Amino acid sequence: MRHTIVAGNWKMHKNAAETQQFVNDLIENMPNGKEVEVIIAPPFTNLLIATQTLEHTNIGVAAQNMHQAEGGAFTGEISADMLKSVGVNTVILGHSERRQYFKETNALLANKVDTALRHNMRVIFCVGEELNDRKNKQHLNVVYYQLKDSLFHLPKSAWNNIVLAYEPVWAIGTGETATPEQAQEMHQYIREQIAIQYDKEVAENTSILYGGSVKPENSKEIFSKPDVDGGLIGGAALKVEDFVNIINNG
Ligand code: 13P
């Protein structure tokens, strides 16, 4: 069901001790009575610390990536089963840094999505255009093919386990944020494409998060847009105070 989610993507930040400190502080400072689902996505090595410490809370834990194979000779990789065995049921797939630095393609990501869903995991699937795409007015088109090539083969029922995150690459870690209007335009477009491919019900039930330089100061306005259902936060999710302030704006 569509609802507001605030998720923190830690990327390659925080060691074990720092993770423990963060989750302790987050538990202590979690706002009461907010109807916002809160998720943190620490690096693999800290997932177990997070799931164990957060077990009896309503704060969720996601992984930042996952391999598409069930297992085997893939040095350095992590499988869906491994994630589930440490209590992780959500995985971020298709982040632009995975696409850019690790050459993950739409076709590969379709495979990863299939594997995650086969394991009953929920996927936070990232899409987003690069600056040149936007300059050339190709942003809608680029995002359309990311959706089509990685997700539109799924049956309707699978969409219960799909959350989308629109992250314009030019706004990630740059301090530059899409205007609330630019975010709304893309989110509305994405929802329309889901409605065309499936139906209105699937489109209305899918949470679409915005990511890219979200901060306490700009989160309220971005989250207030009708098709924006919260955020996927990078840098500002690393400080409990900022993260909690963003949750409060959800
Ligand atoms: P920043 O919030 O640091 O721009 O990162 C966004 C992001 O990539 C979240 O996945």
Describe what you observe in this structure.
The protein has 250 residues and is α/β, with parallel strands linked by helices. The chain has 11 helices and 8 strands. Strands 1-2-3-4-5-6-7-8 form an 8-stranded parallel barrel, surrounded by 6 helices. Strand 3 (59-63), helix 3 and strand 4 form a beta-alpha-beta unit. The relative contact order is 0.16. It is globular, with a radius of gyration of 17 Å. The mean pLDDT is 97. The structure holds 1,3-dihydroxyacetonephosphate. 1,3-dihydroxyacetonephosphate is lined by residues 9, 95, 167, 172-173, 211-214, 232-236.
N-to-C terminal Cα separation, in Å? 16 Å
Count of helices?
A: 11
- Helix content range of the residues, please? 40-55%
Q: How much of the residues is beta strand, in percent?
A: 15-25%
Structural class: alpha/beta
Residue stretches low in confidence (pLDDT < 50, at least 5 long) are: none
TL;DR of this structure?
This protein has 250 residues and is an alpha/beta fold. The protein has helices spanning 16-29, 47-53, 80-85, 96-101, 106-118, 131-135, 139-150, 180-197, 200-205, 216-223, 240-248, and strands at 5-9, 37-41, 59-63, 90-93, 122-127, 162-166, 208-211, 230-233. Helix 5 (106-118) packs across helix 7.
